[in-house]
Amino acid sequence: MTDSAGTTLLLGQTLSFTGNPFESSIQDAVHHETRGAVLLRDGHVAAVDQADTLRALHPLARVVDYGNGLIMAGFVDAHVHYPQTAMIASWGKRLIDWLNSYTFPEEARFSSKAYASEIANRYLDLTRSHGTTTMVSFCTIHPASVDAFFEAAQARGQRVVAGKTCMDRNAPDDLRDTAQRAYDESQHLLNTWHGVDRLSYAITPRFSPTSSPEQLEALGALWRENPDCLMQTHLSEQTDEIEWVKGLYPEARDYLDTYEMYGLLGARGLYGHAIHLTDRERARLREMGAGLVHCPTSNTFIGSGLFDMAGLMAEGHRVGLATDTGGGSSFSMLRTMAAAYEVGQLRHTPLHAAQLLWLATQGSARALHMDDRIGNLAPGMEADLVVLDLASTEAIAQRATRAEDIWESVFPTIMMGDDRAVRAVWINGKAG
Ligand code: GUN
Ligand code: ZN
Question: What does the alpha-carbon distance between residue 272 and residue 177 come to, in Å, rounded to a whole number?
Fold first, then answer.
């Protein structure tokens, strides 16, 4: 094929996944080129190969040379609350108090569409500068908060998933809907946005304590009617929360059962946190192929507990990685990988750098059932890329000079990197 004016060749180190580094050796799961190239055409990755090979094949392509920069898939953040951007890092509370003291008052401000748009754009600016190209976001109870987020993402050509956060009990008056309104408003938003450009709708009951059984049932029905949508919620984050759920749903076998009873358990379900699971819950989630989302900075920040990554991966669960902004204390998936590493260490199961990078891209994309489109650097994938500078600060650079392979060279950036390590971000084939 002849190169059109829209063909671009990026040069640098390249990192692609050829397998799952939790299931096969690192060598089998990863392909790294020290002097590699990525050919972009029509918003997609057209080829990944050695630089010399692609330069010879595509002499007319526009070249962007990132030197030693590491080109890989953009980060996929599988669980965030964009409305919590302005109250991130709020001090001293655990989950329920944190929600009541900080979160709900901030979410009430999203009754203003103008405020929602301001924060949506701020959030997307911040995450882009940290290398995140796709995220799955909770919005607030207000339909306009969903419109604001999708409009902002659409203008940037970004692939995002979001939904109206439904609550009809145990929340302030101005943050409650009803079972019927949750159904009607979610259905309207879904019909408006799902499948438009790169946007997808997720049916979003916040969590069992803030929904009546009737509301969960209504949203379960909506999911049954729209089975290609994702459904996102929270599961077993803190032990107090689990006790509360037991009291609210005395007939349920466990926390997961409160979702299962109402049709809210499925392969396209995303269950945030999933820390304190019973054996039955683990088996059932595995059987359904449901997505578990690990939010390590949130779990340490709010004091929730230590996610069992090694055990769940060994059982074959579908696991993604997420910031959980603003219960999580960061917008950065690098910082989030570092926290996942630290949680692994506290459980005596350290994660390899390849596993961390896989979780932040492929793992999350798999949880979203979008791994055929995003989360890897491979021909046919959408051109959402991040280019990392592996010597972005003096502290990182001096450590990286000792590196003997790509993993020793990338791990200091995972552990100590921030937005200064993000040299470039490409979204939908365009550099920002
Ligand atoms: N559980 C229910 N709502 C939330 C939330 O906004 N953040 C976190 N971390 N957990 C929740
Ligand atoms: Zn959350």
Answer: 22
Q: Inform me whether the pLDDT recorded for 4 exceeds 90.
A: no
Domain boundary among 367, 392, 407: 367
Say which residue the tokens 């890329």 belong to: 385
Task: State whether 125 and 253 are in the same domain.
Answer: yes
Please tell me the distance between residue 126's alpha carbon and the centre of ligand 2 in angstroms: 18
Does the Cβ of 298 fall within 6 Å of ligand 1? yes
Range of the domain at 68: 8-74+376-431
Among protein residues, the one whose CA lies closest to atom 11 of ligand 1:
234
Q: Is the CB of 366 under 6 A from ligand 1?
A: no
89 C-alpha vs ligand 2 centroid, how far in Å? 14
pTM: 0.98
From the list 99, 322, 89, the residue with the least C-alpha distance to 209 is 99
Q: What is the mean pLDDT of the chain?
A: 97
In short, whether 271's Cβ falls inside 6 Å of ligand 1 is no
Ligand 1 and 326: CB distance under 6 A:
no
pLDDT at 3 (0 to 100) = 61
| Cα separations in angstroms, 211 against 97, 168, 234, 267 | 18, 5, 12, 21
Q: Enumerate the H helices of 176-275 as residue ranges.
A: 179-193, 213-225, 239-248, 255-260
| 155 Cβ contact partners less than 8 Å away, ≥ 6 residues apart | none
